[in-house]
Amino acid sequence: MKPLHGWLLLLPAVALLALFTHWPIVATVWDSFFATPKGGRPAPFVGLENYAVMVADEVFWKSLWNNLWFALGTIPISIALALAMALWVNSAMRGRTWLRMAFFTPTILPMIAVANIWIFFYTPQYGLLEQITGLFGVSGRNWLGSESTALACVMVVAIWKEAGFFMIFYLAALQQIPPSLAEAAAIEGAPRGYYLRRVVLPLLMPTTLFVMVNAVINAVRMVDHIVVMTRGGPNNATSLLLYHVYQVGFVFWDTGYAAALTVVLLVVLGCVAIGQFVFLDRKVHYQ
């Protein structure tokens, strides 16, 4: 009777998870083997044709390459900045509550609002960045309109918004470290850097693993900023994987090909997440 009671308690959560997570995944994989239905006619079965089109799709490979650079640029910097901010606001200092709020504020701002704020910063001739660079004799650059700088500009926005979010997790983890460890290190005469490297960072590894998984997901699901700031331009220089899926599915209305792209996106995310757990789990020390 007890197992039945437990399953009945789990039934609402299991039903919601199956309805909004598992079934959409299965349906997406199934749709990826069909062409887009037209005019009320059923979608014809095309097998692996959508995946063959993907292999020959230059925009897909461009988006994949952009997403790789986007992840390599945003994930390490966001995590390092979040850790530095957490260490700073965790110390005994005046006004640390206000500083924590200042670091966390970008996280609670809507994505569209953040994108519009930074559009003003990057606006040629009269934007804030142009005003600052003009003081040094460097001005007249179209930051979002140049292929060499557009992706980097979007990366800066992502880092600015995500670092405060990751800081909260590091701050919570730092507050769980027993003060006796710091006292013992001080009695032994261990330098602060040695204590940070040998005690604090290993104890923060579970949090770092959690943050890294979320950072990878955020790097792949970035689409709001792209839609508002660049629309994938110029010349697909800022087109990321999820934005390409959005373009194919909702602009060109090729749902079959969009489903195939989504399947590849899910596979990439799953492989990266499994790789993170496999390679980093050995370095995670659970208390």
Report the β-strand fraction as a percent range: under 5%
Shape: globular
The CATH class: Mainly Alpha
Structural class: mainly alpha
Oligomer kind: single chain
Euclidean distance between termini CA atoms:
35 Å
Number of helices: 13
Protein name: sn-glycerol-3-phosphate transport system permease protein UgpA
GO cellular component, one term: plasma membrane
Main location: membrane
Domain ABC transmembrane type-1: 64-274
Q: What can you see in these coordinates?
A:
This protein is mainly alpha-helical and 287 residues long. It has one domain (57-283): Orthogonal Bundle (MetI-like fold). Helices cover 72% and strands 0% of the residues. It has 13 helices and no strands. The chain has helices spanning 2-31, 49-55, 58-90, 96-108, 111-122, 128-134, 150-174, 179-187, 192-203, 205-220, 224-229, 241-251, 255-280. The two termini are 35 Å apart.
Search tags:
287 residues; mainly alpha; MetI-like fold; 0% strand; globular; transport; membrane; cell membrane; sn-glycerol-3-phosphate transport system permease protein UgpA
